[in-house]
Amino acid sequence: xxxxxxxxxxxxxxxxxxxxxxxxxxxxxxxxxLDDGRILVGARPGGVLLVRVEEENGVALxxxxxxxxxxxxxxxxxxxxxxxxxxxxxxxxxxxFWLDVGRETAARKG
Length: 110
Known about the structure:
By secondary structure, the protein is of the alpha+beta class. The chain has three helices and eight strands. Strands 1-2-3-4-8-5 form a six-stranded antiparallel sheet.
């Protein structure tokens, strides 16, 4: 992982670990953050945030600044996985919005 991805992982760790049991794993070239075995978000190279979202909400969330369908290798993922550009999560308030989206999705899938 590059420096931008590591910095994002540090920010995620600081915001997610308050009062919760969050597990970290390296998956898909990403540092993934999981709650009870369910992926919430991931810190990707270049400081890109990977977020798991509800499929039906994914299309609407694509209208948020910096949001695109995630690309893993040569595959463009469905609307249940979004990449968020680093400039769109430059402040902790916006990053927290996306972390909350990931948590809500995991809670519904659990």
